[in-house]
From TrEMBL:
Quaternary state and interactors: Composed of 13 different subunits. Subunits NuoCD, E, F, and G constitute the peripheral sector of the complex.
Gene3D superfamilies registered for this protein in UniProt: 3.10.20.600, 6.10.250.1450, NADH-ubiquinone oxidoreductase 51kDa subunit, NADH-ubiquinone oxidoreductase 51kDa subunit, iron-sulphur binding domain
Gene Ontology molecular function: any one: quinone binding
Recorded coiled-coil stretches: none
InterPro entries in the cross-refs: NADH-UbQ_OxRdtase_51kDa_CS (IPR001949), NADH-UbQ_OxRdtase_suF (IPR011537), Nuo51_FMN-bd (IPR011538), Nuo51_FMN-bd_sf (IPR037225), Nuop51_4Fe4S-bd (IPR019575), Nuop51_4Fe4S-bd_sf (IPR037207)
Taxonomic source organism: Rouxiella badensis
Protein name: NADH-quinone oxidoreductase subunit F
Catalyses which reaction(s): a quinone + NADH + 5 H(+)(in) = a quinol + NAD(+) + 4 H(+)(out)
Ranges where the NADH-ubiquinone oxidoreductase 51kDa subunit iron-sulphur binding domain occurs: 343-388
Family: Belongs to the complex I 51 kDa subunit family.
Cofactor or coenzyme needed: [4Fe-4S] cluster; FMN
NCBIfam families the UniProt entry points to: nuoF_fam, PRK11278.1, PRK13596.1
EC number: 7.1.1.-
Job of this protein: NDH-1 shuttles electrons from NADH, via FMN and iron-sulfur (Fe-S) centers, to quinones in the respiratory chain.
Amino acid sequence: MNIYGYTPKEIIRTPEMHPLTWRMREDQQPVWIDEYRSKNGYAGAEKALGGMSPDEIVALVKDSGLKGRGGAGFSTGLKWSLMPKDESMNIRYLLCNADEMEPGTYKDRLLMEQMPHQLVEGMLISAFALKAYRGYIFLRGEYIEAAVNLRRAIEEARAAGFIGKNILGTGFDFELMVHTGAGRYICGEETALINSLEGRRANPRSKPPFPASVGAWGKPTCVNNVETLSNVPAILANGVDWYKGISTSEDTGTKMMGFSGRVKNPGVWELPFGTTAREILEDYAGGMRDGLKFKAWQPGGAGTDFLTDQHLDLPMEFASIGKAGSRLGTALAMAVDHEIGMVSLVRNLEEFFSRESCGWCTPCRDGLPWSVKILRALERGEGQPGDIETLEQLCRQLGPGKTFCAHAPGAVEPLQSAIKYFRDEFEAGIAKQHYNNARAIGGIQPNNLLKERW
């Protein structure tokens, strides 16, 4: 992850334009509490707890336009407002989704390893607003350095009076713990995360009821992403107008964005919404490596639809990328070059999604392995007439509303878009003898072929 290294475009991080990263050290070491406080750290928490009511904080975050940075892009303030108003429900939980398992995404890791106190402060403010007395950071188990740094930051915050009993003399109590997961992609789904936290199998729950009313251990629970919570301190410290003024888009604030793949300078940078994908690819990531031509890209992780070079001038924002037929997702894009075959690439992605399915519902459990089998055959040049149509049918049957959670719909996004833009590569995988035989007998129905093969 390269946020400091060489880029063709010089980057000067400032508090006004880079609220998430301006405090980061040039030597990439963690910013501990003394340095963090010397750079206006915990000012947002002191303002929030020192004179604002929980409802005022919720309204402020809602007015700021802060959207979830985990991929869904749902209004954070609106999500907070769904927590029950009943004061008798005094046990509430705030969960931080730090299970960053999306292939090609590493923005939360950067923030947790180098800016752990920013997340701690964000959770403190959020917990106060939600009247939650306990918080958990559900951390991907492989993020060992992040776990060490977060635990140290929590202890430093406790010693400074920001964690524990009667914080800042307000009477508000808040405990914060790091919980490392066993490593499952499905834990990115908030109800599967809750099940795992409780010691259960990481299967999604039926909704409704939603976590805001019945969450962890049956109590009201709010789940937010690392980057989302890390935005909260700056909003409290500097106000709504400032936060909205950073962006050149209807989406407010900044976003951790980047490019991976065979580019000259893969990395992640904090940029305002509205920055175009081409600017990130060429000015920050340095363009494709010498001798390689740009072919396609995924805007925000492995579970987003492929786009082509004609979409590179789109602003990186939720609406524009959505209208183009994909999703902004995590905004960590992956560039595909001309030497990479789309069938092999998609087969690799579908193998991952198939392996990570929790197996709870039939379409996902059986449909994804089926797509992998067909893609393997196409990759070997042993595909049969009807295979592509079967893959398209699977994409429809595993789409939104057809499965228990959003795992399968996200899994088929790269598949359906690869067929849409690069169908000729899939057709090239159909064995010529099968194609000729089909023509000779007047065509073979896909269903008959499937009965024979599977």
